[in-house]
Amino acid sequence: MKTTVAIAHILQAEGIEFLSAYPTTPVIEAVAEVGIRPVICRQERVGVDIADGFSRVTNGKPPGVFAMQYGPGAENAFSGIATAFTDASPMLVLPLGQPGDRDGVPPLFGSVRAYAPITTSIQRLNAPEDVADRMRRAFAALRMGPGGPVMVEIPADVAEAEVDDAIPASYRPVRPVVAAPNPDDVQRTARALLDARQPVLLAGQGALYAAAGPELIELAELLGVPVATTMAGKSAFPEKHPLALGSVSGVMNEAARHFMQQADLVCGIGTSFTKHIMSMPVPTGTTIVQLTNNPRDIAKDYDVDVAAVGDAKLALRQLAEACRELLGGPPQGTPAAEIERLQRAWLSDWMPKLTCEAKPINPYRVIWEFMQRVDPDEAIVTHDSGSPRDQIMPFYQAGGPRTYLGWGKSHGLGTGLGLSIGAKLAAPDKFVVNYMGDAAFGMTGLDIETAVRCKIPILTIVLNNSSMAIEARHLPLSHEKYRTRDIGGDYADMAAAMGAWAERVDEPDDVGPALERARRATEDGHTALLELITSEEITFSNKNAIS
Fold first, then answer.
1. Distance between CA 349 and CA 56 in Å, rounded?
2. Which residues have C-beta within 8 Å of that of residue 3, sequence separation ≥ 6?
3. Among 171, 352, 369, 443, whose CB has the most other CB atoms within 10 angstroms?
4. CB contact burial 518-532 (16+ within 10 A = b; e otherwise)
């Protein structure tokens, strides 16, 4: 068989059921031959995002896979892979490569050289007989290495070469192996938690990938300690739980701000504590405890007082047991009442915007109406960059694990659309919703047609204010003189022209009914888009409030 068919058989053995791809590569025909579904997108970046969204929802078990041609195909995929790398999202990328006699010849683009800084593992398949070894290394890196994209470049001449049928037939899927922390480190962590006056647990996306939700709830309830999540970790802890603070990042609700500001100890679980404009700055003088499976993250950006290396699920089990032995009884009260009081007062202050009757529609009204109508455990919601992210994250209360896809250390406008397509492929029974602005639609909106053509019934909510509103403070003079922030378009009409169910909403009182109509459209199997004509709202909750 050809090398690409051998790769397809290996993908099948590893549980891969679909491949996103664009525009052409012999891998597409090969996977179709063995019964793996190709999903052909409209641009490489969105194809990467589809694989990324799939991996986020499945926790990389199995991972999403994307394939593209060499040269322009590999070049165009770069921004999507950069986003996946900064968010440590495990996915497999299979670019074609220049034939052997052209590899490294300037100015030809080579994936191995170009992508080395933004992949966690990268290889070139130099000979057909190496296919099983290279693919096994790739899946081992995906399942046991640090999170992020893994790449195997397939030279065009090797792709078409013949390989012995016995090589893929003898391939055995990679079984993941996880490690527990050193018990002494766990004991130190337990004592630090119990000695703290106002500790906070901070769950990152490592808690999601470890499927550590039950253990996180157990520890929080055992100690009576509040739990916040990072932006990427949002939904690691159910946000309607009495001890939930919600997500903390560049924006946050008042309970999250208060408890993070007052904390004398922050225990990070599955988080890198990366300093970034959209991450939570830990207040100066706070004791920091870090539980992570990646030792390179320890003390990377902060002085860490106590650390343990290991799988988050195993670490939390050990930590709960250690705390139980040291406690000798139930916790002395919990902050649940204080959390509820702060949340209630904060929401009351925001009600004028959340229930605003003015035109154009306030985007916070859209989020509030959505929250009243959708059970968060039945949905998967994601934001896009800029205003939609800053507006939805503090208010929307995620349900169980992976009911919200938070992202944004890399600000790729339009990423949410591909993520939502991948999420729906991973969880077809969920109501999958992507919030994006009109600027984001301009980047990737034509891939609404991909969802239509591939019968993937997602809902995209476009908050159309005809402006890059969040950039107001960056472009004051140029906008005054040349209107540099102004953009425009009739996005519902564009979506309808691509075959989607689409509706444009101008009236605030029609927001709720329109959301219900859109949801019914997705339940009937239609890709849907709601365009809401919104105001240039630039007020955000507690933006960068912790220092």
1. 34
2. 125, 128, 131, 154, 158, 159, 160, 161, 162, 163
3. 369
4. bbebbeeebbbbbbb
Longest CA pairwise span in the chain (Å): 71
Is the pLDDT reported for residue 546 higher than 70? no
What percentage of the chain carries pLDDT values higher than 70?
99
CA 236 to chain CA mean position, Å? 12
Q: How far is CA 483 from CA 402, 413, 473, 480, in A?
A: 40, 20, 13, 6
Residue type, 439: A
Q: Please, what is the Cα angle at 210 between 206 and 215, to 5 degrees?
A: 100
Count of alpha carbons within 13 angstroms of residue 273, beta-carbon side: 25
Phi, psi (degrees; rounded to nearest 5) at 109: -80, 130
For 197, the token pair is 């006056």
- Which tokens hold the place of 522? 């997705």
For 210-217, what is the mean pLDDT?
97
Q: In what order do the strands lie in the sheet with 265-269?
A: 244-247, 227-229, 199-203, 265-269, 287-292, 306-309
Could you tell me the pLDDT band of residue 330, with boundaries at 50, 70 and 90?
Answer: confident
Task: Give the number of other CB atoms < 10 A from CB of residue 428.
Answer: 10
Task: State the DSSP string of 144-159.
Answer: HSSSSEEEEEEEHHHH
Helices (H) and strands (E) in the chain, counts: 23, 18
Task: Judge contact between 66 and 43, C-beta under 8 A.
Answer: no
Spatial separation of the C-alpha atoms in residues 529 and 526, rounded to whole Å: 10
Model pLDDT for residues 104-136, shown as the tens digit of each residue: 788 889 999 999 999 999 999 999 999 999 999
The dihedral of CA 33, 37, 43, 44: what is its sign? negative
Nearest alpha carbon to residue 405 among 235, 252, 530, 268: 235
To the nearest 5 percent, what fractions of the chain are helix, strand and coil? 45, 15, 40
Instruction: Give the pLDDT of residue 542.
Output: 82
Question: Whole-prediction pTM value?
Answer: 0.96
Residue 472 has pLDDT above 80, yes or no: no
Enumerate the β-bridge partners of residue 21. Answer: 40, 67
Average pLDDT of every residue of the chain? 95
Structural tokens at position 471: 């950039």
Residue in 277, 459, 242 with CA at minimum distance from that of residue 366: 459
Rounded Cα–Cα distance for residues 146 and 53 (Å):
18
Picking from 73-87, 400-414, 462-476, which range would have the lowest pLDDT averaged per residue?
462-476
